[in-house]
């Protein structure tokens, strides 16, 4: 146990050192992609807690990202910028002069998204399987429509521009690291064991005295809060948001990361978020003309998504439970693998 704690501390120090090096060496474009991957780590872990560890089928993640993004934007923008942005209809006086530090805005984004999650979860978490998925998807669309039609709060379909760019590698990956640590501690706790029991067999879990609604609500609210924080970071990263940004496609992207990484695997979600985000960006080369010197290949718009979809199809066909399944990379497994390799080398030398 002491060894693992020491190794964890060393790993965190090494991780911070890597962030420092990347922050100094990566150009603005690559740093933006790296930060986007970190945001997807946060969003993926939130959805994996709900879908992977608790066994609920929620498709409403984009709505809670939108709540977090708008909350973070409205709380960090200056009164002057709000006045310039809300030119069709003035912003409501309650929000006009509010400006708080970025950390406070992130906390508020998580709390408000979690509160909406509790409000929506109260009726829909009594449903199961496909009914729950349809209900959460419906509520996500309702949230998006409300954002489109509340001109004096969200600026309607025009969206919000001029969001302060506080998001950087330290905020994104610092929160991602905290999220990973929180998830590990949560899943190892008694609550995590209950979440897994609900996932495996609700009837058996209820028969053993588990309050299904309470624990489902807890998982759902935490997932929504993480989505809100991720949404606030995303809004600050891109500098502009609008309701169309948070359509079902956004939820699908996060769900894709969770499924590819492994439903119920923290390690898988982290790896998948980084790989998918980087791969989607670097496959953009397929959409433009390529000059190989001896031949010129015309670009085909959308080809990168076709190639990416084929790669995903191959992964799903051969790794139906995702890259990691429900497994995690732990120190015990790393040292166990090291010992097995060492023993194998010793036996071969002896023979």
What do these coordinates show?
The protein has helices spanning 2-25, 28-53, 61-76, 79-85, 93-96, 102-124, 129-149, 151-154, 169-188, 190-200, 202-207, 212-238, 248-261, 266-282, 303-318, 331-350, and strands at residues 160-161, 240-241, 290-291, 296-297. By secondary structure, the protein is an all-alpha fold. It has a single domain, classed as ABC transporter involved in vitamin B12 uptake, BtuC. Strands 1-2 form a two-stranded antiparallel ribbon. The protein starts with a helix and ends with a helix. The mean pLDDT is 85.
Short description:
The protein is mostly helical and 351 residues long.
Main features:
two-stranded antiparallel ribbon, mainly alpha, 351 residues, globular
Q: Any idea what the shape is?
A: globular
Mean pLDDT: 85
Q: What distance separates the N and C termini?
A: 36 Å
What is the second-level CATH architecture?
Orthogonal Bundle
Task: Write the topology of this structure.
Layout lengths: L1 H24 L2 H26 L7 H16 L2 H7 L7 H4 L5 H23 L4 H21 L1 H4 L5 E2 L7 H20 L1 H11 L1 H6 L4 H27 L1 E2 L6 H14 L4 H17 L7 E2 L4 E2 L5 H16 L12 H20 L1
Antiparallel strand pairs: 1-2, 3-4
Helix pairs in contact: 2-9, 2-12, 2-13, 2-14, 3-6, 3-7, 3-12, 6-12, 9-10, 10-12, 13-14
């Amino acid at each position: 146990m002491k060894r693992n704690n020491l190794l964890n501390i060393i790993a965190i120090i090494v991780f911070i050192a890597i962030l420092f090096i990347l922050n100094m060496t990566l150009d603005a474009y690559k740093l933006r992609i790296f930060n986007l991957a970190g945001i997807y780590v946060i969003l993926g872990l939130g959805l994996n807690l709900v879908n992977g560890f608790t066994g609920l089928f929620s498709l409403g993640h984009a709505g809670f990202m939108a709540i977090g993004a708008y909350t973070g934007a409205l709380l960090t923008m200056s009164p002057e910028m709000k006045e310039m942005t809300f030119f069709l209809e003035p912003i409501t006086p309650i929000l006009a002069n509010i400006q708080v530090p970025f950390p406070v805005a992130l906390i508020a984004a998580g709390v408000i998204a979690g509160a909406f999650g509790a409000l929506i979860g109260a009726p829909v978490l009594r449903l199961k399987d496909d009914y729950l998925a349809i209900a959460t998807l419906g509520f996500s669309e309702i949230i998006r429509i409300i954002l489109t039609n509340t001109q004096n709060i969200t600026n309607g379909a025009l969206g919000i521009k001029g969001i302060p760019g506080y998001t950087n590698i330290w905020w994104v990956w610092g929160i991602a690291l905290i999220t990973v640590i929180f998830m590990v501690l949560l899943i190892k706790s008694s609550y995590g064991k209950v979440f897994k029991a609900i996932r495996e067999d609700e009837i058996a879990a209820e028969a053993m005295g588990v309050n299904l609604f309470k624990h489902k609500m807890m998982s759902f609210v935490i997932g929504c809060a993480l989505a809100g924080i991720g949404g606030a970071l995303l809004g600050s990263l891109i500098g502009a948001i609008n309701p169309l940004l948070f359509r079902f496609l956004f939820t699908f992207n996060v769900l894709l990361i969770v499924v590819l990484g492994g439903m119920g695997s923290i390690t898988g979600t982290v790896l998948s978020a980084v790989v998918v985000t980087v791969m989607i960006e670097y496959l953009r080369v397929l959409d433009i003309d390529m000059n190989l010197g001896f031949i010129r290949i015309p670009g085909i718009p959308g080809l990168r998504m076709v190639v990416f979809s084929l790669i995903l199809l191959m992964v799903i066909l051969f790794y139906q439970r995702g890259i990691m399944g429900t497994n995690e990379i732990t120190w015990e497994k790393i040292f166990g693998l090291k010992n097995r390799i060492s023993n194998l080398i010793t036996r071969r030398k002896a023979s």
